[in-house]
Design goal:
The strands form three sheets. The chain has a nine-stranded mixed sheet, with helices on both faces. Strands 15-16-20-17-18-19 form a six-stranded mixed sheet, sandwiched between helices. Helices cover 38% and strands 19% of the residues. The chain is an alpha/beta fold. Its main location: cytoplasm.
């Protein structure tokens, strides 16, 4: 008789317990992988290398990946994913690997739950396999509504400067499964985790992560359409701190992150480490008279502090926006938890450059700055971006993902010289401006032609921008309504600015 429910999952765990080498008896395991994006393909590739019997189920299958699956001997079923494909039922998977984008109540996940099929994300699979190739790396985990990628890159740069073999990976674009299979091995992985990935992680048992250190940068309403509520979103984020061994790093300016740390089940000896833009107390990183200081990772932290760098030096490196300085402090805490010296952190920061579309200065003409922060894909990120400037013509809009923009508009109404609304979710923004910023000139781009959106937005912004203003693309919304991604949106803005200014 087939096992069901907890008995089936328990049987799978017992079998996996005996898989002690990289390639042993996985050939007896039937696995289905949902999705063929970057993480889905990495999961299929990994499982094929292990010798498992793998079936990929996906709505879209790029030709290149389809060809590679054929080479790997992995079966592929293309489906609209509105129902359970016959091929999936016939495969009778014992394990389902789910790509991050699959909604928790997706029909295929409900089908798996009803049959007691174990469901893992790619992060859990990678953790379970981490010690199967050479010496396992330590993991530093990073999550938050905003700033994750910059902080991961900063921390990895600091660790590399200290001589560690380090891989930034996870939601940053390089799958963790690819990182752990690197034949050269790593000392440490800095793993960016989205709320989707965290949702699927257990907090106890064989699949639970036990990171060296962990960090939640901030928490603001986002992806509510996916998680179902703000409470569920925050609960997913809080998973990052579970079982941490050395440092649980939280944001002093965001009480939710401290609350998460206070309620986390961690390893004995793990410490709570705060960071913020004010004067630091013991076990904190902060700023004293323009000097970034560490009062956490030194024995006499009650009596003195260590200098990391200065705000002036960060300004010279293009890292002076307040929210970027907060990311620098958070990354420094991660690096310090791993033993990186303050001087090494300072040297690493002097060579660091932000990625494109993150507070990127596109042009300066007639004392008007044009700045691309297309990466500000939610109100929390746009709030930080707007706060960095005194007088703004704001280009805003896209897919709002169910979040409320009223507080954002109200908070920054006084600094707005004008606003240009783009995207499909224009009505909530139009109403928010009418309610909270009635004196601000607001333009609306209603073109359905993607190629015309940014040129029109730039022309409109130029009609109200005056010397001393910043024309700021900080959409507070996702881009997929009119662009492939935030980078494509930012590139379109860059091109439109240069064309308009005659460059």
């Amino acid at each position: 008789m087939a096992l069901r429910g907890a008995d089936a999952v328990s049987d799978l765990e017992n079998r996996l317990e005996h898989l002690t080498s990289w390639q042993s008896d996985w050939s007896a395991l039937r696995v289905a992988v949902l999705g063929l994006g970057v993480t889905g393909f990495a999961a299929a590739d990994t499982l094929a290398e292990l010798g498992a019997d793998v079936l990929v189920v996906a709505s879209a299958a790029p030709d290149e990946r389809t060809q590679l699956l054929n080479v790997l001997g992995v079966a592929l079923v293309q489906s609209d994913l509105t129902d359970v494909p016959d091929e999936l039922s016939a495969h009778r998977p014992e394990l389902l690997i789910v790509s991050p984008g699959f909604h928790p109540d997706h029909v295929l996940l409900q089908w798996a739950a009803a049959r007691g099929i174990a469901v893992w994300g790619d992060i859990e699979l990678a953790w379970r396999l981490r010690d199967k190739v050479g010496i396992p790396a330590e993991w530093l985990l990073v999550t938050g509504t905003n700033g994750k990628t910059t902080t991961v890159q900063l921390a990895a740069t600091m660790l590399a400067a200290a001589g560690h073999r380090v891989a930034p990976c996870g939601n940053i674009g390089v799958p963790v499964l690819d990182a752990i299979r690197d034949p050269r091995g790593w000392d440490v992985l800095v793993v960016e985790l989205s709320s989707y990935q965290l949702h699927h992680l257990p907090r106890s048992g064989p699949g639970a992560l036990a990171p060296w250190s962990s960090l939640c940068l901030n928490v603001a309403d986002d992806h509510l359409d996916w998680h179902g509520s703000a409470a569920a979103y925050r609960e997913a984020k809080s998973t990052v701190y579970a079982n941490t061994g050395v440092a649980c790093i939280y944001n002093k300016a965001d009480a939710a992150t401290l609350h998460m740390v206070e309620n986390a089940e961690v390893q004995e000896g793990a410490r709570a480490i705060g960071f913020g833009l004010g004067v630091p107390g013991p076990s904190e990183l902060g700023i004293v008279e323009g000097i970034l200081c560490d009062r956490a990772f030194l024995d006499d932290r009650f009596d003195r502090a260590l200098e990391l760098t200065t705000v002036t030096e960060l300004a010279g490196a293009g890292l002076a926006a307040p929210h970027v300085i907060a990311d620098v402090l958070a990354a420094s805490a991660l690096a310090r938890s791993f033993g990186v010296e303050p001087g090494t952190i300072r040297d690493a920061l002097l060579t660091f450059h932000l990625d494109a579309h993150r507070i990127e200065v596109v042009a300066l003409q007639n004392n008007i700055q044009w700045i691309d922060d297309s990466k500000a894909t939610n109100p929390h990120a746009a709030d930080a971006s707007l706060a960095a400037f005194d007088s703004v013509v704001w280009i805003v809009g896209g897919l709002l993902k169910g979040v409320d923009v009223n507080d954002l508009v109200r908070k920054h109404a006084a600094r707005l010289s004008g606003a240009v609304i783009i995207g499909v979710d224009r009505t909530p923004l139009r109403e928010a401006f009418a309610r909270h910023a009635p004196l601000v000139r607001v333009f609306e781009i209603d073109s359905d032609d993607t190629e015309d959106v940014m040129p029109s937005a730039v022309r409109m912004a130029a009609t109200v921008a005056k010397p001393g203003d910043v024309v700021l693309l900080a959409p507070a919304a996702a881009s997929m309504d009119q662009f492939d991604n935030y980078a494509a949106r930012g590139t379109a803005f860059n091109q439109a600015v240069h064309t308009f200014l005659g460059r």
